[in-house]
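Lecture notes, unit on binding sites. The following record was shown on slide 14. It pairs a sequence with iron/sulfur cluster.
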Amino acid sequence: MQIWNPWHGCQKISAGCKNCYVYRRDEAVGRDASQVRKTNDHDLPLKKNRFGGYKLTPEGGTVFTCMTSDFFLDGADQWRGSCFEMMKQRPDLDFYIITKRIDRFLSCIPDDWGEGYENVTICSTCENQDRADYRLPILLSLPIRNREIICEPLLEEIHIEKYLETGLISHVTCGGESGDNARVCDFRWVKELRRQCVRAGVPFYFKQTGALFLKDGRLYHIERKLQQAQARKSHYSYTPNSHSADLIRYTLPDRRALFVRLSRSKFRSGFGLDEDDIRYIREKGLDTVRHHAEDFVRERLGDENPKNDGRQTPMRGHPVFKAMHATACCCRSCLEKWHAIPSGKQLTADEQAYITDVIMEWIEKHLPSE
Ligand code: SF4
């Protein structure tokens, strides 16, 4: 990982900045992080080593740019032009810029920016729904070749489906907050964000848990050095078509408890079998209906990322469809929320059998005795 900090220092601008690590580190050495100054490394991309080669090389990987400030900070307006010049002079390097000031982008780019430099990725952060809804429409409207989103520190459940569905976002990263005063990161928020990425086919990187991690109702204090490893161990990062989700460990719900929960849902408990359904089941027999359920589960839910997920199960037309909605087996999102089966994985034969069993249990419970 190569880092280029052309200036240092920043001003806090939104909720995500509250415990900014730049401030924390500067305070530890008695420095005022709100004072912005040009660094000695301002021209790092052009600096040479003692053998005459560049210090920053393509082999060194992406150049993370301005990591102790914000590249679009107004206090750095006089220094930014030369940075764009250096990015142009080093087309062999990929520059990665993370910003909370995407709304300043247009006033900061050089005249020859065009549709964007090929070697520059712009990543907008959104730590909560409010900032997502403010920054992401701007990010999508700008001339940028490579757009990414980073939700870190993730402060609440956020919904960014409509931005992902544009196909203009190439990657999403998320993580918790570190430091002594870290705010909680709830694993449910991470899973929800991942689910949205899976559905939109956007790669998702669960980078780190943060220092306070809430999982299954239990709060964990996680040491800094373990935060990335713990996130990695969860296997909740997602790369389309990689089968990475096969490694996620999860526990299917207790069947009895599941049916109690379903009965408490106004929407789920509103489904029932009508006379046509009952007649159909009696004519075909439960074994045949089970075969239909097996087919529907395999065809509509089985793929890693089924087409039209969320809309693949009609509300009527077959008693199994009703049972799928009533038992939250209608789409992969519902399977994740109600049955803990992670999105983004090909369903195994065992998982398909479990889903079919749940559907058939509901049908049998709702079939009046003859
Ligand atoms: S924008 Fe980034 S660097 Fe600046 S204060 Fe906020 S978190 Fe810190």
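Take-home: Residues 349-366 form the longest helix (18 residues).
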